[in-house]
Amino acid sequence: MSKPHRITSFKGASEAAQSIRDLISRVANSNATVLITGESGTGKELVARALHDESHRAGGNFVPINCTAIPKELIESELFGHRKGAFTGAMNDRIGRFELAHGGTIFLDEIGDLSMDMQVKLLRVLQERTVDPVGGLKPVQVDVRVVAATHCDLEARIASGQFREDLYYRLNVLPLKTPALRERTDDVAELLSHFAKACVQNDAPPITFADDFIDALQAYPWPGNVRELSNLVDRFSTLFAGQKLSLSTVPADLLPKGLALLQAQRCENPATSLQPVTPKPAKVTSIYSGTASDLMDELEVNPVEDIIMLAQGISCLPPEGISLKDRLADIERDLIIQALARTDGNVSQTARLLNLQRTTLIEKLNKYDLRQGVLNVSAA
After folding, report:
1. Is 340 in contact with 375 (CB distance < 8 Å)?
2. Model pLDDT for residues 201-216, shown as the tens digit of each residue
3. Which CATH number fits the domain 182-266, given the four candidates 1.20.5.170, 1.10.8.60, 3.40.50.620, 3.40.50.850?
4. Among 155, 157, 171, 182, which Cα is nearest to 42's?
C-alpha cells in the first residue's frame, strides 16, 4: 500500500508555500528534531503531519499532543504514561504518548507553554531517548521522531526565564517557519476554492467569489491566518450555499471587522449595481395571516433562522436609493412577527420580548394589521 501524499495539502502556488513544501521534502526522512514556528492558524500541524507522511516513519503512528490542553498535573502521565497505583485513580498501567509514537512521530504543539519542570523531563527524553512512566521502576526505550511547534518567541521566553535554553537548542535542530497568510496573499484565491469544495452543503455546488471580493480578501491582513479564512468560507457555505458572492452584497455583520471596513470604503463608489445576496434557505414572510400556531410553522423559528435573519440587511446603499421609512417599517414588522411566533401570539410576552409597552405594541399590531391570531388583545 502506498503511503498518503500529504505534502500537497499545504496549498498555494506562492514562493512561500513552495518553499515550505521543498523544505518538507528535504528534511522528512531525517530523524533530527524539528521546531516549527509561526503564528496561530498558519498550518503548523499540517506541516508536522506532512513531515511524518513523507518520511520512512509513515507506517508508524503520528501522535499529536497540545501541551496547553492538558492540565499541568496530568501532562507527565500523558506524555510518559504511568503504572498502576502510581497515584489516586491510577487503576491500571497506562502507555504514554511517547510510547504510542514508538517507530513514528510525536508532535508537541505549543511547546512554549510547557512548565519548567516538564521542560527538564523532556530534555532528558531527548538526550537519552527513554521515558520514565510515573510510578515506574525502570525507564522505557523509545524510538520516536520529535516535531515541536510554537507560536511564541522562544528566544524572548529564554531571556525572561520562562524557557530553558538547553531545551531550545535540542528542539531547534531543523527550524521551519510557517508563513502568515498576509505574506502569501497570492494563495488566497486557491485557498478559497479549496475550502469552498471542502465545505459544500447538501450537495449544492461550492460557493464562488467575484473578483471584487477576491481583491478585498487579498487586501485583508488575516490576523487568524488560514484558519480564519477556512472558518469564513464555512460560514458562507452554510448561509449562501451554491451562490457567487460579491463584496458589495454580503452583509457586513457576517464579515470580520477589517473586511467590513474595506467593504464600507469600497461601497462608497460602487463600480456596479448588484442586488443583495439572499442567504439560503430564507423563509421569512412579509404577510401574516392565520393563527399564531400557523405563523410559528411558517417562520420555522430556530437559532439558525435568527442568524439568517441578521444576514438579510442591505450592507451598501444601492445607487438608486431606498425608502428608509418603508425599509425601517418592514424591519419593525418582521421583528414583531418573529416575536409573536416565539410567544405563540401572547401580546404581553411579546411586548416584554421587544422591550415595548403593551399599549405601544397593540398600536403597532393595528398599524401592521397583525391582530388576527394573537392572544389577549381585547384585554388591553
Report:
1. no
2. 788 899 999 999 999 9
3. 1.10.8.60
4. 182
Task: Give me the residue spans of the domains in the chain.
Answer: 7-179, 182-266, 292-313+322-367
| Whole-angstrom distance, CA of residue 272 vs CA of residue 286 | 28
Bridge partners of 134, per DSSP, are 82
pLDDT the model gives residue 88: 65
Count of Cβ atoms closer than 10 Å to residue 289 Cβ: 12
Which of these, 128, 28, 129, 122, lies nearest to 75 by C-alpha position?
122
Q: Is the pTM of this model over 0.70?
A: no
| Cell numbers standing for residue 123 | 530534555
Spans in the chain with pLDDT lower than 50: 1-5, 271-316, 319, 378-380
Q: Half-sphere exposure of residue 117, counting CA atoms within 13 Å on the CB side?
A: 5
Same fold across 182-266 and 292-313+322-367:
no
Is the peptide bond prior to 251 cis by the omega test (within 30 degrees of 0)?
A: no
